[in-house]
Amino acid sequence: MLYSCKLKSVCNLPVIYNKKINTAGTSNTDVPLAVPGMYQLDITLRRGQSLAARDRGGTSDPYVKFKIGGKEVFRSKIIHKSLNPVWEEKACLLVEHLKEPLYIKVFDYDFGLQDDFMGSAFLDLTQLELNRPTDVTVTLKDPRYPDHDLGIILLSVVLTPKEGEHRDVTMLMRKSWKRSSKFQTQSLRLSDVHRKPHLWRGIVSITLIEGRDLKAMDSNGLSDPYVKFRLGHQKYKSKIMPKTLNPQWREQFDFHLYEERGGIIDITAWDRDAGKRDDFIGRCQIDLSALSREQTHKLVLQLEEGEGHLVLLVTLTASATVSISDLSINSLEDPKEREEILKRYSPLRIFHNLKDVGFLQVKVIRAEGLMAADVTGKSDPFCVVELNNDRLLTHTVYKNLNPEWNKVFTFNIKDIHSVLEVTVYDEDRDRSADFLGKVAIPLLSIQNGEQKAYVLKNKQLTGPTKGVIYLEIDVIFNAVKASLRTLIPKEQKYIEEENRLSKQLLLRNFIRMKRCVMVLVNAAYYINSCFDWDSPARSLAAFVLFLFVVWNFELYMIPMVLLLLLTWNYFLIISGKDNRQRDTVVEDMLEDEEEEDDKDDKDSEKKGFINKIYAIQEVCISVQNILDEVASFGERIKNTFNWTIPFLSWLAIVALCAFTVILYFIPLRYIVLVWGINKFTKKLRSPYAIDNNELLDFLSRVPSDVQVVQYQELKPDPSHSPCKRKKNNLG
């Protein structure tokens, strides 16, 4: 009865389709509709045209809602000051009954006021052909004024049946929306379906080389172009190239390929505009099904709805070893499989597949004492395990604060300096998943085969939250491959939250940079005091040392001094005279920042005005990020010599020994000659090589002081010890 009432209340709104929908073809009206969770509806919200003006300036700030069965399942981002907005957003929805239409509503965002209605329409799902991409145009109408023309919305939809054993892992992409903030984060919700052992079938490696003759979007006849890529729910955004129509990006990234037959990569080019909405330059697509495997393809793509070309290199490779299985199915406990894995990463196979550095196995056993997220005093927890861009999920344990998952996850390691992130969420049927806790574990800090209770932390990883999670992790890797991979650029993560402006974050970065600068200032004061003979004994010793070093100086002494400093700190650590101190200043600042985050969540309506001041915000965020980069650079150098990550400090010792020997035996002119020849001929030998700096790539793997605090393992309550738990069970 409730369903029929809902249908009657909206039946006077139009259902209008594009002519591309072939209602005379193979429709799905004869398919039984009673089976819940039977269909997956993939929707791409393209753009709007000639929408209604709702603001005084003759424009609107439109966004779109999707509803099914009266429940909101998707909300788009807000496009400011436009009647022809371009969204290019995708949603993957589970549809239980095709007789329930997709309800599309468009609103104009008004800060501090009720949003204005801009029109609505229905999409009849029974008229869609199965497994066929369909372009749909819906005409927006207002039920109160049916004669008014409110514009159109352009969509692309694909309806796929999900039956029986052929069901795949289905993830519902939703927006965790806060209407007062433009910074929206995406979360995932799992349906309770059977998972296949391999969640993706291959890797798509893309190198964005350059753009040619792009359209000028700025008044100076140039543009500040960047490119967005999307494959399913995976997204990537390139760096911005200022003031050019022929940008050189030289960026490389990987996507997961979930479908055997391939997929479509959507590519859009944009011009960055500070203080207003970015300008659309053009779009193009890559049909992966038309490309052969295990071969690199050079593509020159014409931008549609714009001008210019993009040049890319695309390579499709077979799937890496990434899987989910039950606890009883354990690769490392099988002697044959373990021997094969150890052989694969043995020192004898140094140059075999340099990208395959190691093997990671994560046993997600259980959690205890989780936070109650539902009104019933319970939660529906599931666990997300992430390594860089590889993301796997457990099943949901309903109505339980002490869930047991007993799942085994395996990953290929591409960078031994990666951080394993394990996050626990509460599944909510009608809303985005609620955060329950998180841990971040650097791979180099893992103790193999040991079951440990990790205290869950908050979102910023700055302090504990309620509950612990039991994990058992094993890492097997080739140390030589890992060292070589340290000298190439880190893998970039897919698009995350935009950097937000934060008073505490700005202050924290300023203090961090000030501390780094003060080290240099204090060193200068110390040297100057030697010149002033404030301490005669110290000044005399410094004068004698100066004469000795200058008279006997050779270039090889520079890396030798750094080598001695590393060795000195190492012996201090092993002798128990560790001069490294816990950075309580950074911890306190991180806690203050989290308090500000909580306050922002509560008072977001009051502070939402800051999102309106786009130009000031851009400048402040840039300053905030520059301070962070400068401070992190200094902290990473310090942490290299402090042996914060022993693997990297040993690697630095090996490199400095090699440099010392080379500079001692080989004249400087020959070294400079080889370096210059390599630099001048690099583009001739490898035209599409990605530029990199080995020293900066090395330092990027060393954690800053903020990351050191975030990766610190909190001490669990002794009552959560696995050994004590076993004794209690025996008792």
Q: How is this fold's topology laid out?
A:
Blueprint (H helix, E strand, L loop, with lengths): L1 H8 L29 E11 L12 E7 L2 E5 L10 E10 L6 E7 L7 E8 L10 E6 L12 E10 L9 E6 L8 E6 L11 E11 L12 E7 L2 E4 L10 E10 L6 E8 L7 E9 L8 E7 L6 E10 L4 E4 L8 H10 L13 E11 L12 E7 L2 E4 L10 E10 L5 E8 L7 E9 L7 E8 L6 E14 L1 H7 L17 H29 L4 H17 L4 H18 L9 H19 L1 H4 L6 H28 L4 H20 L2 H18 L8 H7 L4 H7 L10 H9 L1
Antiparallel strand pairs: 1-4, 1-8, 2-3, 2-5, 5-6, 7-8, 9-10, 11-14, 11-18, 12-13, 12-15, 15-16, 17-18, 19-23, 20-23, 20-27, 21-22, 21-24, 24-25, 26-27
Helix pairs in contact: 4-7, 4-9, 6-10
List segments where confidence is low: pLDDT < 50 over at least 5 consecutive residues.
Answer: 1-37, 164-198, 595-611, 725-731
Cα separation of the termini: 55 Å
Class from secondary-structure proportions? alpha+beta
Strands, total number:
27
**Helix count from the secondary structure assignment:** 14
Major sheet attributes: 5 strands, antiparallel
What would you call the shape? Answer: globular
The proportion of residues in beta strands is 25-35%
Q: Helix fraction?
A: 25-40%
Walk across the major sheet and give the strand order. 19-23-20-27-26
Mean pLDDT: 77
Compute the CA-based radius of gyration. 29 Å
Oligomeric composition of the shown chains:
single chain
Total number of domains: 4
Organism: Tursiops truncatus
GO cellular component, one term: synaptic vesicle membrane
InterPro entries: C2_dom, C2_domain_sf, MCTP_C
Subcellular location: Cytoplasmic vesicle, Secretory vesicle, Synaptic vesicle membrane; Endoplasmic reticulum membrane; Recycling endosome
